[in-house]
């Protein structure tokens, strides 16, 4: 089966970036949530994007007070940038439609999560119309990110992942899309029960998928390069 991965140092850097993005974003979320004490941040109840609101306010029916909002916003932008760079370095876009599709999905996800960090969903931005970019970014990263995980899982052989990581990525993509549907029903129907739970249900599978893809390909890159060198030595010997 033809590999759609690059090899060498650039590919290892790409895999490392895919792994680093969600880890840094999670660390930023933990630090930011811990600093939010009035009222205390509730991960199952509060909106995720409220962690990035720089001012204390009542937004979408919830009190928001995030003194370290800049940490969360930086984490989101970092994740977006390294996701785009990592996919571009790791995937060989010359190898057909799969690496191209995965790269496009990574770019959409990266731009989406960066928009979430750059444009707040504050009352001020709702009033001036800028919040549309925040909502567009959130929807884009959730949909494209979970489709990325699903397609990566279905392309496991070409990514050199093996069956177990491939199946895990498929499950993550499906779970994330189910979470997205439940999240939208919760919001659109006005139920608004445990917003944070359903929002994370849609988001975390994406982040786990990026970390899994990065970690597995990172550990297997050196072995792939070594095998090719050994094969060349045998042929020339």
Give keywords.
237 residues, mainly alpha, elongated, disordered C terminus
The run of helices and strands is HEEHHHHHHH
> Which consecutive residue ranges, at least 5 long each, have pLDDT under 50?
222-237
Count of structural domains: 1
- What is the β-strand count? 2
Could you explain the architecture of this structure?
This protein has helices at residues 9-35, 69-90, 97-118, 123-128, 131-154, 156-159, 163-188, 195-236; strands spanning 57-59, 62-64. The protein is mainly alpha-helical. The chain has one domain (9-222). The chain has a two-stranded antiparallel ribbon. Strand 1 (57-59) and strand 2 form a beta hairpin.
Précis, in short:
This protein is mostly helical.
Write the layout of secondary structure elements.
Blueprint: H1 9-35, E1 57-59, E2 62-64, H2 69-90, H3 97-118, H4 123-128, H5 131-154, H6 156-159, H7 163-188, H8 195-236
Antiparallel strand pairs: 1-2
